[in-house]
Amino acid sequence: MTKNGICIRTRGLNKSFGSVHAVRDLDLEMKTSSRFGFLGPNGAGKTTTVRILSGLLKQTSGSAEVCGFDVSTDRDQVKTVTGLLPESPGLYSKLSAREFLELIGALNRRSGDSLSWRIDSLLSILGLEGRQDDLLESYSSGMKQKVLVASTLLHEPKLVFLDEPTARLDPSASALVKDLILALAEETETGFFICTHMTDFAEDVCDIIGILNQGRLVTLGAPQDIIERTKTSDLEEAYLKIVGGKIDRKTLLAWR
To answer: Which residues contact 3 (CB under 8 A, 6 or more apart)?
Structure first.
C-alpha cells in the first residue's frame, strides 16, 4: 500500500536519547520502487532513522508513514511490508543457505511449496543455485551478504532497508552487492532505502540522495543535481563540501 506513489513520508520526525538529539525535524519523502541513499558521517542519525521507519524504535515526536502505514500505530503492518538488513546481522554458519532461508521463512509464517519456490527463485537471481546446500561457513563474505539480502526479500516486501550493506566487504564483494541491488530493483520492483557513508557506492546505485548531518537533513536530490549545485566533480567531493572534513593536503605534505 502506498499513497500517491510515496512509500515513505515523515513530518517533523525527532528522536532523542536523553540529552542527545539523534534525529531533528526530519521531513522526508521517498517514491515507491526507488533507490534512496541516506548518507552521513558516523553518528549522524542514519541508523536511528531506519529503526524508526522499520518499526523497531518509537520516535520522540513527529510522524512517519511507511507504505501507507503509520509507524506509531501500525508497527506490525510496517514490519510485514518491509525488510531490514542491519549493519551487523546474525547468520547461522552451521546451516546451509537453503536451511537458513527456510528458518527465516518460518519466522515470517511462510512454508510449503510457495516458500520453496521463493527460495529457489531468489537463489537463482543471486547466482547461488549451485551452492544452496553448502554450509554458510564455507561461503565468502560476498556470498554471505547475498544470502542475507535474500533473507530480507523472502516475504516479498515492498520496501527494504539496508544499513551499511557493504560494511566489512572487500571491493569485489561490494561490487557484487551493488549489482545485486540494481538487479533486484529492476526484477522485483522493490524499493531500497540504503544507509551508507560510501559515496561512490551511493552515486552508482541510488537515484535520490539525502545527506544527514548531526540529525538534520541538509541536502536532498539526485546525485548529479547535488554535484552540480555544489560545483564539485563527484559525490564524494560534494559530500565533503556539505558536511565538512576536507583534507588539507598542504598540511599533510608539511608533516612528511
So the answer is: 9, 65, 68
